[in-house]
Design goal:
Distance between the termini: 21 Å
Length: 167
């Protein structure tokens, strides 16, 4: 299993479809997952530390798990079939519960707990986004490099379609 970090939620143009972008912690590959608007909001809220006055569904789930004296220890992306990602919530006793990837990510950000990905999922759905070399990051060029990476990522998102991730 590979550990992932949540890069953020983006809107894919021109369809205005939200996606969550994950990146392997010790690598260069990213996994884009197309998600629904409510899940995109839930993930973005958690990343920004926004606490609604009343619990959202993912907050409620986390509160119920804690009230029952249990803990979610990790989230796993276990498979991808026809561009649909399948995940699991892993509990402190080893029990697992199947989940949509977007819901699992939203829960993981609230717990917080690590997000892992099966090697096969990364092999099938992972994409490399070109990055500048390390010597370009020295001195005052770090800002230019960050802007270049952002531009490259935007170009990647402009050209990628869900069908690109099918076998």
């Amino acid at each position: 299993m590979l550990e992932l970090e949540v890069v953020g939620v983006r809107i894919e143009l021109p369809s205005n479809q939200p996606l969550v972008l994950l990146k392997e912690t010790d690598g260069e590959r990213h996994i884009p997952i197309w998600i629904g608007a409510p899940e995109a909001s839930a993930i973005a809220f958690a990343q920004q530390g926004i606490k609604p006055p009343r619990p959202m569904t993912h907050d409620l789930l986390n509160d119920v798990v804690e009230a029952l004296g249990r803990r979610i220890t990790e989230v796993r992306l276990v498979t991808v079939q026809d561009t649909v990602f399948f995940a699991e919530l892993v509990f402190d006793g080893g029990a697992t519960v199947s989940s949509r990837a977007s819901d699992a990510i939203a829960v993981a950000l609230r717990v917080p707990c690590p997000i892992y990905c099966a090697d096969e999922v990364m092999e099938e759905a992972g994409v490399k986004i070109a990055e500048a070399s390390d010597d370009e990051e020295s001195g005052g060029e770090a800002q230019d490099n960050a802007e270049s990476q952002l531009r490259q990522f935007r170009e990647f998102l402009a050209d990628v379609e869900p069908e690109d991730f099918e076998k």
